[in-house]
Amino acid sequence: MKISYAWLRDYLQLELPADELAEKIERTAVEVDGVIRPSEGLKKVVVGHVLECVEHPDSDHLHICQVDVGEEEPIQIVCGAPNVAAGEMVIVALPNSWIGGHTKIKRSKMRGVVSNGMLCALDELGFDEKLVPKEVADGIFILPADATPGEPVFSYLGMDDEIIDMSVTPNRGDMLSMNGTAHELAAIYDQTPKMPTVALTEDANDLADDALTVTVEADEHDVPTYKMRLIKNVTIKPSPLWLQIRIWNAGMRPINNVVDATNYILMQYGQPLHAFDYDKLSAGHVNVRLAKAGEKLTTLDDEERDLLPTDLVICSDDQPICLAGTMGGLATEVTNETTTIALESAVFDAVRVRKTAHNHGLHSEASMRYERGIDHSATQTALDAAAAMIAELGDGTVATGTVAGREETIAPVVVDITLSRINHVLGTDLTMDTVADIFRRLDFPTTINEDTLTVTIPARRWDIHIPADLIEEVARLYGYDNLPSTLPTGQPTIGKLNETQQLIRDTRKLMESAGLTQAISYSLTTPAKAQAFELHASEVTKLDFPMSSERSALRLNLISGLLDDLAYNNARKEQDVALYETGRVFFSQPEQVRPHEVEHLAGAITGSMVPAEWGIAAQPIDFYQIKGIVAGYLKSLALADPITYVASADHPEMHPGRTADIYVGDRLVGFVGQVHPNTTKAYKIRETYVFELDLAALIALPKERQQYQPISKFPSITRDVAMLINDDITNAQVVDLITDKGGAHLRSVKLFDVYNGKHVPAGKKSLAYTLTYQDQNATLVDDDVTAAFDKVLKALTTEFDAEIR
């Protein structure tokens, strides 16, 4: 909300600097983004009077102008604007002046003719092109005839004003108007604001009821108030300059006297209005209802829109002509041929308007105010004020009476609160007189009965309903800086991480020590990506009103987000990327009200984790490298149950021959492997390996106590064994058997050779292992090792029919 300081002075006596006022607003009411000074950085830009304008001899569009700029002699300026003419008052940038965009204007020649400056359009002074009136969008701006040549131009364009840009929070919709802001500042500075009055003259011989019929079919909650007035014999023309200045300083584009009047009242009262061309209505019939399936409406932006059953629409003879509270329809637009205006002022349900604005992407000044709430008591006043202004600016007449389709009864909110409660919450020792004076400054009528204050809340402050709201008002006006500062009492508690938090933090450290970088992905994705890489079956949780089609469902996995991150990096020539993420996924079943949030851990690696250096070749990531990262992490958890990896083809997005499910005991806790080539092609990434673990399940599983064990002081003894064994027997089975039969002193079993080629029978393979024996307390005797080793050989021969070589 952009607030003109000059406009504020119409309400209040304010002489303090704009920066100080903005700082006070920010400390007391709402945030302020900054103070805008339109003339800042501009220099030597003055009013000029075009004395003579002739065609350039060597150009078909340039003009040579003699311009009076208040000096002894006119200056010559070459200008290409189509609307320049003798006798006009124009904006002149003198030689060595500075205009918008920090541009310096110098003397120059244009097609051989000297030009001592420049005639300026508004956008050349720094105006946003969207705010420039259409009639001068392609040319220079023409100043009023009474402008004085040579004077700085800024006061004529409202550029000497200071604009306070407020970031109004949703709970303070009352400050989305000049009236509301004036009431707030009046309370802050203890002044009585000079509020605008409405001088409406009606034509007694012309009754609005005779020409307009208004019915409201929508629910009373959706449309509590709907009123219209009729203004006849209106001449559509540009607004006077003072009104255009107020409009563009508020961040809106001047259109014509009718539209500008509705926008001016919108800014003044915070009440959205809409003007219809009465002659384009069907016999003056207007009705308000919910849209029907299949209906369409072409809005003022010339876009045809498919209406939804949740949309409130204004109709004429049951044909939609306007999206209520959002945007008007093109068919009833006010044009230069319009002579009669049907003016609407209404209250629409905030939720309805918000849904319509979101669904159609039509976020307007009107919808913003309806969404945050408006002053229901100002509906008629704003309607009367706009009708009076349109009649005055358009030389028209206002028909007698207001045609109401529905009108609500507005009952004031009354809140009781005690002085002791206020002081208890704020930690203050305020007197009754101090609190009562704050409510007086806020213009809240108050009665006092012993310790209780009964406060009547005006309709313009619809955000106040309960005692806590009044306590906040007292705190704001008393001053947050004046509230006492106290330290908390009681025994302090030493902060620490709980077991889950500590394990998640340790997980991040372990992943980063393994060479992975933390990534944070969106929790929202597409339904297709949400269902990919599922660890457990689940329904997809979809959003009713997603911000975009790419963010319409809650994720069921972390890998999809990591693959998006890999694709982002690969597209920017980063080929070696290793990422991990800890975060929540959202599982849902049909009977659940809300999804179940589960903590997961995932990683994704592409390229090489060991970059090529002198004497070292790059090592592309493979299954065993990422499995080693996972195995190292799981080992750090000291899980009580055994960990097994089972080859799996159950994940369609994963390579069926290079993927393994991970079990702890009998519980599936994750998977690891290579992403399917078709999936990597879809993401536009190279060969990639991933893993995903159910971190919540791993945290919940039983753990063994991790105890320190000193390194043995005594030497170890090794034995090697090579064997021929059937192809269908896995390394894991062999290692498990050796570990089981190897005795108490067996410390490790390592596979150091695999052969399956020449001289090996079909269906067989050759495996070779090194077994390491060591005693913690004494030097091993060779006979003891040999006895234990013989048990291993016998078990291999008996259980696996191995041939020891």
UniProtKB/TrEMBL annotation:
SUPFAM superfamilies: Anticodon-binding domain of PheRS, Class II aaRS and biotin synthetases, Nucleic acid-binding proteins, PheT/TilS domain, Putative DNA-binding domain
Domain TRNA-binding, residue spans: 39-154
Subcellular location: Cytoplasm
Residue numbers binding Mg(2+): 463, 469, 472-473
UniProt keyword annotation of Isomerase present: no
Cofactor note: Binds 2 magnesium ions per tetramer.
Keywords associated with the record: Aminoacyl-tRNA synthetase, ATP-binding, Cytoplasm, Ligase, Magnesium, Metal-binding, Nucleotide-binding, Protein biosynthesis, RNA-binding, tRNA-binding
Domain B5: 410-485
InterPro entries cross-referenced by the UniProt entry: aa-tRNA-synth_II/BPL/LPL, B3/B4_tRNA-bd, DNA-bd_dom_put_sf, Fdx_antiC-bd, Fdx_antiC-bd_sf, NA-bd_OB-fold, Phe-tRNA-ligase_IIc_bsu, Phe-tRNA-ligase_IIc_bsu_bact
Superkingdom classification of source: Bacteria
Swiss-Prot/TrEMBL catalytic activity: tRNA(Phe) + L-phenylalanine + ATP = L-phenylalanyl-tRNA(Phe) + AMP + diphosphate + H(+)
EC numbers on record: 6.1.1.20
Family statement: Belongs to the phenylalanyl-tRNA synthetase beta subunit family. Type 1 subfamily.
PANTHER family linked to this entry: PHENYLALANINE--TRNA LIGASE BETA SUBUNIT (PTHR10947:SF0), PHENYLALANYL-TRNA SYNTHETASE BETA CHAIN AND LEUCINE-RICH REPEAT-CONTAINING PROTEIN 47 (PTHR10947)
Subunit structure, as described in the record: Tetramer of two alpha and two beta subunits.
Protein name: Phenylalanine--tRNA ligase beta subunit
Gene this protein is translated from: pheT
